Amino acid sequence: MYDEIDQYVGRSLKNWAARQVPSKVSWQRLLYAAVKPVEKRRSIFARFLLEILTSRDPFERIIYPQCEWEFEPAFSSMIGPIHFAARLHLIQ
Amino acid sequence: MSEVGDSELIQQLKVGDLNSLGILYDRHRNLVYRTALAITNDQEAANDLLQDVFLRLFRFVDHIDLNRPLQPWIYRMTANLSYTWVKRNHRWLQPLEDMADWLAGSTRNPPYEIVESLDDWDRVQQAVAKLPISQRVVVVLYYLNDLSLQEIAEILEVPMGTVKSRLHYGRKLLKRSLGLGVISDGEKILDTSS
User: Taking CB atoms and an 8 Å limit, are A17 and B144 in contact across chains?
Assistant: First the structure.
């Protein structure tokens, strides 16, 4: 009874989903929130910034200066994950 | 070199190896993001939920049973967090959206012929996004993730009869909102490849 609809809905939904990708920065956000020790966080961000600097993607080059600018204040105020993630999201 | 299994990565994560979390994230992120997005219909929320699911995996890794596959755990967490997000954010908005749909629906004509296209994919997703949340979760797990009724019942921790009923009513609503209720012999759902 539902065969045609099942196929149509299933296929359409899968095709729609295949075009959806998570934002590029979410892994860094995750690591930042997951890792507690400050030193580790610093090295994660160093890697993240290096990744952006060496990227060929012009979009990432554009967000780099703002990341750098936001990084230290967020870090020192210790409200890092929320503040930084929120700012990154705004930049996106 | 063969791919390291999920349970081995969980074992490594239990002893604090963050690279394992990275591998698990890369492996399952699209599944989590797309499921969350299909349920919430909100990209920002789906990105946040994606992060939240893996943060919980990291925090509660000691409670994860290595003898069971990880994917049902991931589905359960994604569905539960998405469900909670929708409930929290749409409590007041939904009745207004329903009213707007009802008003718009009165002037909408059912399509004579449905040809699958980019617009059509979005249309189906939007129709799914309009379903009541309990039906939407089941419909997404069933159609998008190809899970069986039994698997969905286990993930959502509800009886299989409940899953069947939610899917049945979800299908009915989808049929109606997609204008598929009047298909006759001359009207067919066409594949773009045909």
Answer: yes
Neighbour count for residue B96 (Cβ, 10 Å): 10
What is the reported pTM? 0.69
Instruction: Confirm if B35 and B79 have CB atoms less than 8 A apart.
Output: yes
CB contact under 8 A, A17 and B128: no
Structural domains present in chain B: 1-89 (1.10.1740.10), 92-194 (1.10.10.10)
Alpha carbon of residue B116 to chain centroid: 21
Task: Please name the residue of chain A whose CA is at the shortest distance from the CA of residue B29.
Answer: A22
Amino acid (one-letter) located at A80: G
Q: B93: burial class by Cβ within 10 Å (0-12, 13-18, 19+)?
A: exposed
pLDDT in tens, A12-71: 999 999 999 887 665 666 666 666 555 565 565 556 555 555 555 444 443 444 444 444
Q: Tokens representing B121?
A: 């994919």
Q: Please judge whether B174 and A5 are an interchain contact, meaning their C-beta atoms are less than 8 angstroms apart.
A: yes
Distance CA B61, CA B73 (A): 11
- CB contact at 8 A, B113 and B190: yes
End-to-end CA distance of chain B: 41
Q: Where are the domains of chain A?
A: 24-91
Mutate to test the interface with B, among A1, A4, A5 (most CBs of B within 10 A): A5
Residues ≥6 apart with Cβ < 8 Å to A54? none
